[in-house]
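Section 5.1 Outputs to date
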Amino acid sequence: MREPMSAVLRREIDEVRTRGRTVVSITPGPDELRALGWNFMNRRHRRAAFDAARVHTPAAVLRALVAADRPSSTPPPP
């Protein structure tokens, strides 16, 4: 189920970018995906996913903002 939803998100991002807009996409990392489990709509996993996101998100946002402000040929920071 994730792949079709990811494909929709990628198409929407591409559409917005073709209009000349900068898009910063923050998506779940491996820890969040593990916490969510295969059924990401299961409410019992919400706390674990939230806790994992609190750890992952600040660095992901910083990387995305730096990448959005940098020419595409420059590699992202670690």
